[in-house]
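Long-time lurker, first post. I've been practising inverse folding by hand and with some scripts of my own, and I keep getting stuck on stretches where the structure tokens seem ambiguous. Below is the full token string for one chain I'm working on. Before anyone asks, I'm not after the true native sequence, just a reasonable design that respects the backbone. If someone could post their per-position residues I'd love to compare against what I wrote down in my notebook.
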């Protein structure tokens, strides 16, 4: 059972404290960035979100790629 959204870390806090030392799932990305899981899948289909890869039938994300994506988005929004 998942925790309520309010107890989940926000994206900035997750990036500051460090992402987990494992490949992330779409559920992890949705929780960290506080977006619906379907949004994560739409980003993948449109090739606009953090790059993911497949291990068999499972979709995974490298924490370094997620961090780079968020930093890139923050820089684009600041410009």
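-- Answer (accepted) --
I ran through it position by position. Result:
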């Amino acid at each position: 059972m998942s925790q309520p959204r309010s107890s989940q870390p926000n994206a900035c806090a997750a990036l500051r404290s460090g992402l987990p030392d494992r490949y992330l799932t779409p559920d992890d990305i949705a929780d960290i960035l506080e977006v619906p899981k379907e949004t994560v899948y739409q980003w993948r289909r449109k090739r606009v979100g953090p790059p993911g890869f497949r291990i068999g039938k499972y979709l995974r994300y490298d924490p370094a790629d997620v961090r780079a994506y968020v930093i890139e988005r923050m820089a684009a929004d600041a410009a």
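A couple of notes from the structure itself: Helices lie at 11-17, 26-33, 37-46, 63-78. The chain is about 50% helix and 10% strand. Happy to go over any region you disagree with.
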